[in-house]
Amino acid sequence: MPARPELIRPNDAAIEAAMSRTLTALALMILALGDGEHTINLVAERTDDTFVRGQADLSTGTDPVRLTVLDETDYAVLRTLLVFALEGSTVRSAVLVATTAAEPRPRACGWTVRGGWLHPMDPAELQQAVTPCPGVPAVRREVYRAPALPQITDSDEETRHG
Predict the structure, then answer these.
(1) Are 20 and 27 in contact (CB under 8 A)?
(2) At the N or C end, where does the chain have fewer CB atoms within 10 A?
(3) pTM metric for this prediction
(4) Comparing C-alpha atoms, which of 122, 123, 120 is closest to residue 149?
(5) Cis status of the peptide bond prior to 104, with omega within 30 of 0
(6) Using an 8 Å Cβ cutoff, are 86 and 28 in contact?
(7) CB 90, CB 47: distance < 8 Å
(8) CA-wise closest residue to 56 among 35, 34, 81, 19
(9) Assign residue 141 a region: left if phi > 0, alpha if psi is -120 to 50, beta otherwise?
């Protein structure tokens, strides 16, 4: 008997729907974060009792419109993990935190995955999560409430593209 529960692969239709939601969520998140240098971190607890993590560094601008991904592989891993987090059958919980380089110190906001979508995280919980441990050298981040991302349902998506 395995020490951990096994992951059961979701069906293709569920993965496809989650991929569509992921692309929409990332686009809305990037627009909401605005111009700047952003680090996106995702931590997920899988149903087999393991944790997975992804991180990607992005640079965004609106004049002219641009999105620069520092490392394509890191971004692909983050995007894939978010697909499985939003699909939900292999992930118990997931948190996505965006840190934006800012003066005098970086700013951070976060979302939790619930019901197949990203929902703003309570700033007090996020502050506790991003506060460095005593004695550990780390940059303190100013925490703010993440913007709500309007959820576009799969049927809305089909109507627009179909």
Answers:
(1) no
(2) N
(3) 0.86
(4) 120
(5) yes
(6) no
(7) yes
(8) 81
(9) beta
Give the total residue count for the chain.
Answer: 162
Name every residue whose Cβ is closer than 8 Å to that of residue 22 and which is 6 or more positions away in sequence: 79, 82, 83, 86
Contact 98, 29 (CB under 8 A): yes
Side-chain-side CA neighbours of 139 within 13 Å: the count stands at 13
Q: pLDDT tens string for the chain (162 positions)?
A: 456 666 677 788 999 999 999 999 999 999 999 999 999 999 999 999 999 999 999 999 988 888 999 999 999 999 999 999 999 999 999 999 999 999 889 999 999 999 999 999 999 999 988 888 888 888 889 999 999 999 876 555 444 334
Token output for 147: 């913007």
| β partners of residue 61 | 66
- As a whole number of angstroms, the distance between CA 63 and CA 47 comes to 43
- 64 cis-preceded (ω within 30 degrees of 0): yes
| Pair 30, 24: CB distance under 8 Å | no
